[in-house]
Write a structure and sequence with these properties.
By secondary structure, this protein is mainly alpha-helical. It is flat, with a radius of gyration of 44 Å.
Length: about 1000
């Protein structure tokens, strides 16, 4: 029941009729100040404006009441109309003109009527909306007020901008434009409302200009209050409004609100840079506003209705964190702007030390190149000054970081012809920031400058500089430094010049022994080792010299051989050279390590030792150890091949043959390395007759045979079981032989780590992948690799094999192989399959995208078969769906030979909370009109008006016309495929 409209039935005593608010204005104040007034303030506004309709009946205007109409001829309202409108405006003023409240609770027509009444009353004449030229200062009636009309127009233009934003939100959600609670004549969002707001769009720029003028206006901005509107009195013919009761607010409050409204509009029309500028200004003024009101704790904002949480949210939407811009970002912006303000930034960083020193060094090199090119933006002298300034500031930073040797001293050497100028700049910047540096920083700089000045000889040039800048190094300190550098005749006492100093012989011997032992440990040349051994001979007969350093370790077989030698020089010399060679090899100093072993080999061929079989055996062992280090060097420097590859291969073959002869047998590690390097160098035939005592050699022979089978049968199907059976045996996980199985698996992985040749690696990967598929026994998770036709299709009793060890071996081999061949497409796909099988969908997607990017020459050529096929596409679709990126999955459905519309439609219809699946950003990647049509209809059902329009725009592109020839369609699809692939690369690879 409408409690404000008079009824024919009796009413309760608490019921207030609408004309009672006219008769007793204090009743309105009393009602509004209740904790929960019923009806609410917005309900009252709706009722007041409904009782006073906008279109006045002509009979009413000609009635006797018209004779008592307001004397102001500008306002064509009857007294009843004007009285009700004044009451509505008083209620709006009580709400502080909060557009958030008014827009949420008033129908659109009532919002327009309220703003029109406000403009009319403040102007003293009738004003109709929408307005187009109100910013040109319309004529004000005799009872109008300029500052009050300015306030009304500001509120109206704010509403114009906000109405378009709200209309867009309402169109997306397909909900009523305004939800008014408790009012019976609520008008939902209608086509009439839509057409009215459409009519406002041509005036948007006018509203923006007006609001910017208000912000820039130096005159104070005054807002109308509750007391500014005076209710009409039946006993007074002409009631004047109290516009002088308006309150002046600060510019910060006005700017915070207007910049906030402008940001909302710019976000809506996708002008993100302007939105960012306005939200930053709104934030800045809002902070100032909070400081102003902090002095009045009991008073709330008079005009600004900005919510701080929403303000922060819009800042994030504009890409602003609210934190001050860091020095590194400012540095990057300065580089883009031809190094503007670079000196100030570097000076700040010398105190804050935010920018990494590597970035500052890169900047120094860039400025040097910038100056050398002679950029036309500045004069040559200014450029040179800029270069020296950057160098000087970097040198100061080096000193403060405690790294003056690498930075400042090198800079002084590099610019030795301008050394004095560089030092002057360093002293100048040091003095300018003296107060900002800490005490420890000042001490570091002072110490550095004193040391630097003491090394410089240009005294005449330094003195004027030190007289100018004396905070870090005073001129008096410089004078003292000069006196210290002067040559003086120092008189020594007699005892100081005596030559007969005596030192205890025992102490002298201990000092010498310690010195020689230290030199023996540190020297890296065989001649130095020989010299130190001669000096240390006989110093400690009970202790061998090779035992002074526990870090020297040699193979067990060689150690047993050396222990059997007679105690003496050769034993120590051989042990130390082998130990040092292994140390150097571990540090990747291969040439020095090989030189030591070569020297040992030469030592064993001396004539007096030629008839000693132990020494001959030692020489062969040294040769094998030298070969091992050569192999390690080749493996480490792959794909660089050995200098004399033919001789290198002969040495490896000789080593393998020595394992089966009665000669000195190399140890197992050397044999494994020889077999691996011969595989990598494709010397297949030398591996076919292995020593079966060594599993690695047997496996090498099996891999070589597999390759020969490929060559012999030209890729046709021929099952190879040798390598298959060997690896299966190493993966057995029987309870009674766990330790043996573990040793085999470790040996297997260590051997695979030595593989470098792509063909060999592909053969091994195919074997492991095929075995993985059989043991995993899930068709949907199968791995795909080259040469899988070589291997059997089943395994007897698969439960006895260790799938975990197989996974680890396969993964390690893949990672190592991709390190040497990062663009091998089949291996990258296999790595993606492996991660997919283990449920790591994001990692799998990264490798699939990497394969497509590498195969398309980094998105420069179109995707083609066999690079992309239905198998990899379906796996990418599965990965995208599991990651919540359903729109990506829908786009990928087009890549199939036959588009899977069912899956695509299902993917589009899925709801997701993933921020990475921005739906409308992928419309430009869709070339299938059927899919676009489904998206258009789907947005229509969801009420997403803006997205629907975007989809329609892409659907209407000429190259997607169904009547185009096949060549145009293929080119359109290829372009969109590449665009989508680049989008995936940015998401998963960067």
């Amino acid at each position: 029941m409408d409690i404000l409209r008079p009824k024919t039935v009796p009413l309760s005593e608490e019921t207030i009729l609408w004309f009672e608010f006219l008769l007793k204005p204090n009743l309105l104040t009393k009602h509004l100040t209740k904790p929960l007034p019923d009806p609410s303030p917005t309900d009252l506004i709706t009722q007041f404006l409904s009782i006073a309709p906008e279109n006045q009946n002509q009979n009413e205007l000609n009635s006797p009441e018209a004779d008592s109409m307001n004397k102001n001829e500008g306002l064509k309202y009857s007294k009843k109309q004007l009285a009700l409108k004044i009451l509505a405006l008083k209620v709006a003023a009580f709400l502080r003109w909060d557009l958030d409240v008014l827009e949420k609770n008033l129908p659109l027509q009532k919002q327009v009527q309220l703003l029109s009444d406000l403009c009319s009353v403040t102007a003293g004449k009738a004003v109709n909306l929408p307005l187009s030229l109100v910013h040109e200062c319309p004529i004000i009636g005799p009872e109008g007020s300029k500052h009050s009309l300015n306030f009304a127009l500001t509120l109206y233009h704010r509403w114009v901008l906000r109405a378009q934003v709200i209309r867009g939100s309402a169109a997306k959600s397909m909900k009523p434009f305004n939800v008014v609670t408790g009012v019976q004549d609520t008008t939902p969002y209608t086509m009439r409302d839509d057409s009215f707001i459409n009519s406002l769009e041509p005036f948007t720029n006018i509203s923006i200009d007006f609001l910017n003028q208000v912000i820039a206006d130096p005159e104070p901005f005054r807002i109308l209050t509750y007391d500014s509107f005076v209710a009409l009195d039946a006993h007074v013919d002409n009631v004047q409004q109290r516009f002088d009761m308006a309150i002046t607010i600060s510019k910060a409050e006005l700017k915070a609100q207007i910049h906030y409204d402008l940001c909302l509009l710019y976000l809506y029309v996708q002008k993100y840079e302007l939105a960012k500028q306005n939200i930053l200004l709104s934030k800045e003024n809002f902070e100032q506003l909070k400081m102003e009101y902090s002095k009045k704790p009991l008073q709330s904002f008079l005009y600004c209705s900005v919510d701080e949480e929403q303000l922060q949210g819009y800042m994030l939407a504009c890409g602003v964190t609210g934190e001050p811009i860091g020095l590194l970002q400012r540095l990057n912006e300065s580089v883009v702007n031809h190094y503007s303000d670079i000196v100030a930034i570097l000076k700040e960083d010398n105190v804050a030390r935010e920018i990494p020193m590597t970035q500052r060094k890169i900047l120094e090199l860039n400025v040097e190149g910038f100056v050398s090119m002679g950029s036309p933006e500045s004069h040559t002298s200014d450029q040179k000054e800029l270069e020296l300034a950057v160098v000087a500031l970097n040198a100061i930073r080096y000193v403060l970081d405690g790294d003056d040797l690498l930075g400042s001293n090198i800079a002084l050497q590099k610019y030795k012809h301008q050394q004095l100028k560089l030092l002057e700049l360093m002293l100048q910047y040091g003095d300018e920031q003296y107060e900002e540096f800490s005490l420890s920083d000042r001490e570091l700089l002072k110490k550095y400058f004193i040391q630097t000045i003491s090394l410089m000889n240009n005294a005449n040039g330094i003195e004027p500089v030190l007289r100018t800048y004396q905070k870090l190094v005073s001129y008096q300190e410089y004078e003292d430094l000069k006196k210290q550098k002067m040559k003086e005749d120092v008189q020594f006492t007699g005892i100081a010049v005596q030559a007969d100093w005596m030192v205890c012989e025992s102490k002298m011997l201990r000092l010498d022994v310690g010195t020689y032992e230290r030199q023996l440990i540190t020297c890296t040349h065989a001649s130095g080792v020989r010299k130190m051994l001669v000096k240390l001979a006989g110093t400690n007969p009970t202790k061998p010299l090779w035992s002074i350093n526990p870090s020297w370790s040699i193979p067990l077989s060689m150690k047993q051989l050396l222990v059997s030698l007679q105690r003496g020089f050769l034993q120590d010399f051989a042990y130390i050279l082998v130990g040092k060679s292994r140390e150097l090899a571990a540090k990747k100093d291969y040439s020095a390590a090989i030189a030591l072993l070569t020297c040992l080999k030469s030592e064993t061929t001396r004539p007096e030792l030629a008839n000693n079989p132990v020494v001959l055996k030692l020489g062969k062992m040294a040769a094998w150890e030298g070969l091992l280090i050569q192999i390690q060097q080749v493996l480490d420097e792959w794909p660089k091949k050995p200098t004399d590859q033919a001789q290198f291969i002969r040495n490896c073959k000789q080593c393998l043959n020595a394992s089966t002869s009665n000669d000195v047998a190399p140890r197992a590690k050397i044999l494994e390395h020889c077999a691996a390097i011969l595989l990598n160098l494709n010397d297949w035939n030398s591996l076919l007759t292995p020593d079966k005592r060594y599993p690695a050699l047997e496996l090498s022979a099996a891999i070589a045979q597999a390759y020969l089978d490929i060559e012999k049968f030209k890729g046709t199907k021929k099952t190879n079981r040798e390598a298959w059976d060997l690896i299966l045996q190493m993966l057995i996980n029987q309870q009674g032989s766990r330790r043996h199985t573990s040793d085999n698996s470790i040996m297997l992985q260590q051997f695979f780590c030595k593989l470098r040749d792509p063909v060999v690696i592909s053969i091994v990967l195919s074997l492991l992948a095929k075995l993985h598929n059989i043991l995993k026994d899930e068709t949907n998770l199968d791995l795909n690799a080259e040469y899988m036709f070589l291997w059997p299709t089943n395994v007897n009793n698969p439960a006895i094999y260790n799938l975990k060890v197989l996974d680890e071996t396969l993964n390690n081999l893949l990672q190592q192989s991709l390190k040497y061949y990062p663009n091998n497409i089949p291996w990258i796909k296999l790595k993606g399959d492996f991660e997919f099988a283990n449920g790591n969908f994001e990692v799998a997607m990264r490798y699939y995208v990497t394969a497509l990017v590498s195969g398309s020459e980094f998105c420069t050529i179109h995707l083609q078969r066999p690079l992309i096929d239905d198998f990899i596409i379906r796996r990418m679709i599965k990965c995208s769906s599991n990651l919540g990126c359903f729109m990506q999955a829908a786009v990928l459905c087009q890549f199939l030979d036959e588009t899977d519309y069912g899956l695509a439609f299902k993917s589009v219809s899925e709801k997701t909370s993933s921020f990475s699946d921005a739906m409308d950003s992928y419309y430009s990647c869709i070339w299938d009109p059927t899919l676009l049509e489904f998206i258009v209809n789907w947005h229509f059902k969801k009420g997403e008006h803006k997205r629907r329009l975007q989809a329609i725009t892409y659907l209407g592109q000429l190259e997607l016309n169904a009547n185009n020839n096949e060549e145009i369609k293929r080119e359109a699809a290829a372009i969109r495929k590449t665009r989508f692939l680049r989008s995936l690369a940015r998401q998963y690879m960067l």
